[in-house]
């Protein structure tokens, strides 16, 4: 069944609602930034993500050239035509870069955040759910949460640019929708000071992508045992983190706290965040 019309329709809703949401909350965010010095600044995430996106594109381009010789050794040249082999080389290099990126970022996130009072036990922490929204919206989080958002925003912007510049494949809208949702969630979560729960959501998704990209590195090589091992790790991590920990440690606490948080009384557009999060969760199931 071809779902492109559905994904296109959903993408239109998400983008339109995002524009409305930005103008709906911008004055309230400006007031919070004036009254609370530690409140996240919109300019910071925009400027940092732009710089990091550019760096990601440059590093990926350089890495593709550096890994070309490794790709030639690991990929069986006689299996494909020259043009197809060149595309396989490109994907090998890109996925290798992404695997290293996700491995490094998730390791750093766990290292810096696992001892925080709000980091969930499901993810190896000892935090309590009540700490997630304590003192919100004037909530001060660990400095690494800001860095985590900057890097993640820049990476997804780079992916978005790469996707638009690449040949349009049959799964274009299927790939574009979660990419756009991720960018918007990162931006508006930072703007709304949802750094704690946002970091949990990022971690649940980034950890799985270590194995997702790793599978794509080895799938065209002769190392089938490594491919099957990475795929098994992907299935386990996807089931635990994206389908279990993500809703339990992030979605459910949001639903439970949404009525008690101060922002609700101020007219926060909670429906927007719920829509994006549920879209992301449905895409995880899909």
UniProtKB/TrEMBL annotation:
Question: Which key words tag this protein in UniProt?
Answer: Acyltransferase, Membrane, Transferase, Transmembrane, Transmembrane helix
Q: Which InterPro entries match?
A: Lag1/Lac1-like, TLC-dom
Question: Main site of residence?
Answer: membrane
**Highest taxon of source:** Eukaryota
Q: Per the UniProt entry, what is one GO biological process?
A: ceramide biosynthetic process
Q: Which GO terms describe its cellular component?
A: endoplasmic reticulum; membrane
Q: Does the keyword Chaperone apply?
A: no
| Protein name, entry field | Longevity-assurance protein (LAG1) domain-containing protein
Q: Which organism is it from?
A: Toxoplasma gondii GAB2-2007-GAL-DOM2
Q: What is the lineage of its organism?
A: Eukaryota, Sar, Alveolata, Apicomplexa, Conoidasida
């Amino acid at each position: 069944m071809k779902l492109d019309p559905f994904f296109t329709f959903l993408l239109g809703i998400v983008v339109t609602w995002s524009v409305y949401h930005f103008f709906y909350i911008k004055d309230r965010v400006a007031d919070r930034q004036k009254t609370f010095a530690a409140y996240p600044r919109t300019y910071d995430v925009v400027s940092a993500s732009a710089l990091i996106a550019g760096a990601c594109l440059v590093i990926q381009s350089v890495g593709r050239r550096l890994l070309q010789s490794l790709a030639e050794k690991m990929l069986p040249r006689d299996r494909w035509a020259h043009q197809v082999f060149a595309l396989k080389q490109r994907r090998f290099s890109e996925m290798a870069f992404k695997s290293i990126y996700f491995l490094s970022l998730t390791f750093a996130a766990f290292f810096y955040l696992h001892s925080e009072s709000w980091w969930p036990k499901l993810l190896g922490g000892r935090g309590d759910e009540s700490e997630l929204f304590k003192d919100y919206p004037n909530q001060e989080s660990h400095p690494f949460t800001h860095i985590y958002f900057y890097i993640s925003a820049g990476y997804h912007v780079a992916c978005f640019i790469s996707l638009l510049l690449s040949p349009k494949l049959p799964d274009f809208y299927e790939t574009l929708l979660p990419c756009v949702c991720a960018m918007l969630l990162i931006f508006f979560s930072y703007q709304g000071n949802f750094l704690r729960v946002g970091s949990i959501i990022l971690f649940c998704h980034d950890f799985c992508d270590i194995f997702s990209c790793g599978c794509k590195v080895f799938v065209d090589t002769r190392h089938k045992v490594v491919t099957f091992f990475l795929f098994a790790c992907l299935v386990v991590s996807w089931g635990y983190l994206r389908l279990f920990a993500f809703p339990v440690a992030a979605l459910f606490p949001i639903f439970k706290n949404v009525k008690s948080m101060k922002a609700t009384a101020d007219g926060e557009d909670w429906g927007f965040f719920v829509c994006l999060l549920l879209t992301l969760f449905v895409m995880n199931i899909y």
